[in-house]
User: Fold these one by one.
Assistant:
Number 1:
Amino acid sequence: MTSSRRRPYAEQRPRDLGGGVWSVPVPIPGNPLGYTLVYAVESPRGPVLVDAGWNHPDAWAALRDGLEAVGVGVAEVRGVVVTHFHPDHAGLAGQVREVSGGWIAMHEADAALVRLMRGLSDGEHRGFQAEMLRRAGAGPAEVDVASDERPPPPAQPDRELADGDLVDLPGRKLRAVHTPGHTPGHICLHLEDADRLFTGDHILPDITPHVGIYPYDRGDVDPLGDFLHSLDRVGELGPLDALPAHEWVFPDARARAAAIRRHHEDRLDRLAALLAEHRRPLTIWEVASLMSWNRPWADLAPALRGMAAGEAAAHLRALEVRGRIRRVGGFDAVRFEAIES
Ligand SMILES: [Zn+2]
Ligand SMILES: [Zn+2]
């Protein structure tokens, strides 16, 4: 997920994008992504925010001051529509709601995950992580990382959105487009009166978003298959201007969606070939260590290895759904092998 074209947070400024839309960069302290772009969309009854940023005092100050700079007081905010539950998007939504008395809206599938997360104790969360890593074939040192701290779960939304719903933005048309993959309830938001698409993390101009399966060995979902389908759905909306949650604003969401799809199709082909080369079934962890990442596997920090394993698992599951590989039981950890054709 690193990029030579990355732009540091220090170079970012709040921007008037025209048509009653502003972007405000909100830092993600200690994260190479740098910042979340929070958007404010004007309406006669108060602005609505798309995403809110990471829950940290510096991020809060940047959001408040950045909105102020474009003429929006946090107290006037009518509501926050969150593209997905991740902490760099939903983290500050609760604080905005406290100050403004506005609503928080999220897709129903991510709202259900927030409910689940808020119900888990830290101990239960750690146990879940450790068991997931063991079943994927991680070593004891890697399982230990499961004791890492987690960010506080986001605020529970007041409103739940389904595909096609209009967001409460008086005088304008902002429609939720369900784009599962990066999370089960990820939405893009189509500002239909301006041919613009808020793409959240679904489509970014330079990097590809993380798509993983958790727990890694689940066989009842296909997030990468969902993600590829969601890319096609965005393509069907036409060549809209894209307003992503990271990196920078760019033209033609449809062209970028097609490029990201090709990237994953290539990756699936390479992975199928890799399994065919090996004469024995491989664990998810072994597969992850053999795939190419932006750094050598040996140099990946344990938390990044965990994310890489999630991505490997999502690609394995997509190949399984397509009938190109199968999973093999009877081992300590789940394994996959190629199906001879
Ligand atoms: Zn995300
Ligand atoms: Zn993000």
Number 2:
Amino acid sequence: MEPEEAIDRLRAAFGGPPGYRTLHAKGRFYSGTFTATPEAAVLCRAGHLDGRTRPVLVRWSTASGNGRTKDTSPDIRGMAVKLAGDDGQPFDLLGQTSPSFPTQDPEEFVRIAEASVKQLTLPLFLLRHPRLVPALVRGLAGVKPHHSFAEAAFHPLHAYGWLDEHGRRTWVRYQFRPTATQADRLPETFEGRDRLAEEIAARLARGPVVHEVWVQVAGEGHDPDDVTTSWRGARELLVGRLVVTAEADDPEAGGAPTVFDPTRTVDGIKLPNDPILRYRRGAYTESVRRRTS
Ligand code: HEM
């Protein structure tokens, strides 16, 4: 399926108005910093992992393609992060709260997204595709009304090949783990349609929101090309801290298209032959074309 058809079908399913992202339509931008640990620099020569504190652009979002969705509804949430080294070349990581992805086939993903829009069509779809049930049930762990972006863990899911100074490669998968817990909840309650943005604004007024960046390091039998597999028993390493400090203006309001593209690479980072990851570049490019034209 060509990316144009995928975007047509997703936009038709969600009925998102023109000008919005085809998926993750509702979201806001934030600014902050990223600082890598020394352990990251040993395994990867990418500039943003050199241990210096660097600015980041973050977008927290809700997965629906309908930008008017209510934050009180259960959904997957997103945390997209734009990092850069000294050369200014961006490296984007797109995390989502669902800890797994159900398929290696982009068209099947589009069919699942179409079926998920209406409450009745998803069970019927699963009856016809029982093979997908275990993966979708695992993914449900990330589908909630969510109390706060600050308390959510986000999973970029795909493997990335880290190259060190000598060109040695290590496959890793990232996770953004929250440091905020239920004990840090604010005394106020936020119940409206935009409660997630309101809650995070109140939190940021009191101090930064921190996620630790961990990676799983691939070992024997861990396949970097298949996003549907889990890497059981993989070694885990703390590789940095993402600190969000303030809401930022939407760069697109000023006419600068801003895309988080998970296939953008920089020196020191290699992409796997993962059919879902490779497909995403075309889909995102087409989505940007629609929302900016
Ligand atoms: C075939 C699979 C996928 C397709 C076709 C797809 C499609 C899209 C599209 C069209 C957008 C809007 C892009 C834009 O207008 O800027 C988007 C956004 C997003 N996607 Fe995906 N996606 C896929 C898989 C994934 C996966 C595996 C993840 C996470 C691991 C993910 C996380 C996100 C996030 C976080 C955003 C919001 C980015 C932002 O805030 O600008 N997507 N996706």
